[in-house]
Design goal:
Mean pLDDT: 92
Order of helices and strands: HHHHEHEHEHEHEHEHEHEHH
Number of strands: 8
Shape: globular
Radius of gyration: 19 Å
Strand content: 5-15%
Bound molecules: flavin-adenine dinucleotide
CATH architecture of the largest domain: Alpha-Beta Barrel
Distance between the termini: 32 Å
CATH topology of the largest domain: TIM Barrel
Number of helices: 13
Largest sheet: 8 strands, parallel, barrel
Number of domains: 2
Strand order of the largest sheet: 1-2-3-4-5-6-7-8
Length: about 300
């Protein structure tokens, strides 16, 4: 892991920086590259525009690691109202949540009941899938356990797995017996060499190997496989492999973040692949934004340019 990536990931966890940085105007302005706005209305309007380009979206309200269970009730209420708004506007939007935003650090059972209430409403009103984000490795096994439990009650839930963890291939093997919907990503957190591949080329290799397993499973089972990456080489390798395995285009889905590789996103749609853009909104963007900078430390120049502008 490069020094700059390490520093940025450290900064994403620093309590002082979490408290102070979001009020700095030049950072606020730089964040706009990755989100249409802080308000849910901004996200809904952006989703409407994407839909005219046959690109559907996934929404996530930024927030993580709440420290009081009552904060999770506000989040629950937000998502339940959002589902009504999406249904009223007839938009093709899925949801993606971090369990720690609902209280996972404080109570498994309470988080489960909250997530279940959202899942139930998603199923009834939107008829689509709700995704569980994967957070730092201290949550991995607990999140998989959570997923298995909710999956036994509701089939419309998907789980994110991270290719940088050594354990992921085995976790996938284990999960395949419950017919999961899986989004594979490289992984965005600061992890030790003991549990995660430190080098990018090994993470990429792991991603490709796991993607082959996912595609083979998707050929045999009615499961959804999605690849959450902007890595063009990897995406073309997955497309090539899907052709070799004889998997139809409509069974392969790519997911990318708002504001990253927009032209490439359109290219994939033109090629006939399913593409979903994940839109984040809300005012708790600091740790999430630092992880975006860490993914591409040259993004820091963008922030510095904003300082100069001010
Ligand atoms: C839909 C979706 C959901 C995700 N959910 C999770 C999750 O639940 N848990 C988790 O740990 N991680 C999640 N991630 C983040 C993921 O783990 C990676 O950190 C992120 O996708 C960057 O990796 P990459 O696969 O694009 O590959 P990289 O090798 O990092 O990037 C490939 C290329 O994409 C471009 N690029 C990538 N990131 C950026 C950026 N921030 N700014 C500008 N250009 C960039 C660059 O051109 C880069 O060369 C998610 C990502 C996506 C797309």
């Amino acid at each position: 892991m490069s020094l700059s990536r390490n520093i940025l990931l450290w900064a994403s966890e620093s309590p002082w920086m979490r408290k102070n940085v979001p009020s700095w105007a030049f950072v606020k302005s730089a964040v706009k590259k990755f989100m249409p706005g802080e308000k849910v209305e901004d996200a809904l309007n952006a989703a409407q525009l994407f839909q005219t380009e046959t690109i559907s979206t996934i929404f996530t309200k930024l927030g993580e690691n709440i420290t009081d269970l009552s904060e999770g009730l506000v989040v629950l209420d937000h998502y339940l109202k959002l589902i009504d708004q999406i249904a009223e506007r007839n938009l093709d939007i899925e949801l993606s949540l971090k369990l720690t935003q609902l209280g996972f650090d404080l109570s498994f059972d309470e988080t489960y009941e909250r997530f279940k209430a959202i899942t139930k409403k998603v199923k009834e009103k939107l008829g689509n899938v709700i995704w569980i984000d994967m957070e730092g490795s201290s949550y991995t096994q607990k999140t998989i356990e959570f997923y298995k439990k909710i999956n036994s009650e509701y089939e419309n839930v998907g789980l994110c797995l991270q290719a940088y963890l050594y354990s992921t291939e085995k976790d996938l093997d284990d999960l395949l017996s419950v017919n999961p919907h899986i989004r594979l990503v490289k992984g965005a957190y600061k992890e030790s060499h003991d549990i995660a591949f430190p080098k990018k080329k090994n993470v990429d290799h792991s991603f490709f190997e796991i993607s082959k397993k996912m595609m083979t499973a998707a050929k045999e089972k009615n499961i959804r496989v999605a690849f959450g990456t902007h890595d063009e080489d990897l995406i073309y390798a997955i497309i090539q492999e899907s052709k070799y395995l004889g998997i139809p285009k409509n069974k392969i889905e790519f997911q990318m973040l708002y504001g990253i590789k927009s032209n490439f996103q359109n290219e994939l749609v033109k090629l006939g692949y399913k593409l979903k853009v994940l839109i984040s909104y809300g005012d708790f963007w600091y740790p999430w934004y630092m992880r975006r900078l860490a993914e591409r430390p040259s993004n820091v120049w963008f922030v510095l340019k904003n300082i100069l502008k001010h």
